[in-house]
Amino acid sequence: xxxxxxxxxxxxxxxxxxxxxxxxxxxxxxxxxxxxxxxxxxxxxxxxxxxxxxxxxxxxxxxxxxxxxxxxxxxxxxxxxxxxxxxxxxxxxxxxxxxxxxxxxxxxxxxxxxxxxxxxxxxxxxxxxxxxxxxxxxxxxxxxxxxxxxxxxxxxxxxxxxxxxxxxxxxxxxxxxxxxxxxxxxxxxxxxxxxxxxxxxxxxxxxxxxxxxxxxxxxxxxxxxxxxxxxxxxxxxxxxxxxxxxxxxxxxxxxxxxxxxxxxxxxxxxxxxxxxxxxxxxxxxxxxxxxxxxxxxxxxxxxxxxxxxxxxxxxxxxxxxxxxxxxxxxxxxxxxxxxxxxxxxxxxxxxxxxxxxxxxxxxxxxxxxxxxx
Length: 373
Fold this sequence. Notes:
Blueprint: E1 4-5, E2 10-14, E3 21-27, H1 37-47, E4 65-68, E5 70-71, E6 74-75, E7 80-85, H2 107-114, H3 130-145, E8 151-159, E9 162-163, H4 174-177, H5 190-202, E10 209-216, H6 230-239, E11 244-249, H7 260-263, E12 267-269, E13 275-277, E14 285-286, E15 289-290, E16 295-301, E17 311-314, E18 320-323, H8 334-359
Antiparallel strand pairs: 1-2, 2-3, 3-7, 4-7, 5-6, 8-9, 8-10, 10-16, 11-16, 12-13, 14-15, 17-18
Helix pairs in contact: 1-3, 1-8, 3-8, 6-8
């Protein structure tokens, strides 16, 4: 289904940007995992609109309600239903868009596919839908934490032509990321990114950039070979986020310019026994399976499509028009997309964790041949 992700840890989101609510159903979470609304709300607060001068002025509390699957602070093992209300909607801002599809937005393609579309706010194509993903991702993180010390931290690495210095992947935290409204842990680049976003906003324009993410504490062995590689699942998850345009893991596209002698990760002895890669150009994944090192990847985001500058385009009936978008939108999705990237990584890792538990289950003894002694 187009609104679901995962197999054993399966999430289905629902709702439109300007509907009564958005939410999700989380199926497959084991029983007796501690879970409260506060566990979910923390990440929702990082994503919610109106929390920063760099984001859309739309004001939403994004207060989550757990509808099912939890009792006395523990998961029941049954489907968990979550609801997040839409309160600050302004359908009138989108009246002009009934006849004019926004350039580079999903208005045109949704109308072509379904023969109709949500009249305001972008419907399911709106980044508003990602609030449900963040809520589900918070549950995945709670589940992972109950079994493994997995930590997922994302940050803004680049915005426009500003590239931040990469932090120590073993030490960067969400607290250091959130110290700047740009969600960039580089103290030199962060104010420049803030200024670039403010400049785009004041011009009625938008900018894109890159979010980086590290996943620490993932054991070796997660992920499936061939079609369901961990790299493939992460790529699918990240590229499903609105406005994404690229994904790379480890050295990524830079590997195309390297020699094998430069890119290979030779092994070395691990303290206490065993071996580990001496470097991590592969980004913690080999053959589609985690190798126990830090998983590192980057996601590219395009500039927000909805801008206030006049654009020469055409209405649905082909009439040439000059279009200036009304309504409220982010001049740059990057700061609010940081918890979305973390959530999607958590959903993929949560599903991979459950698959690995099946792989590690005790095998039944092989049946003896009928005439064996």
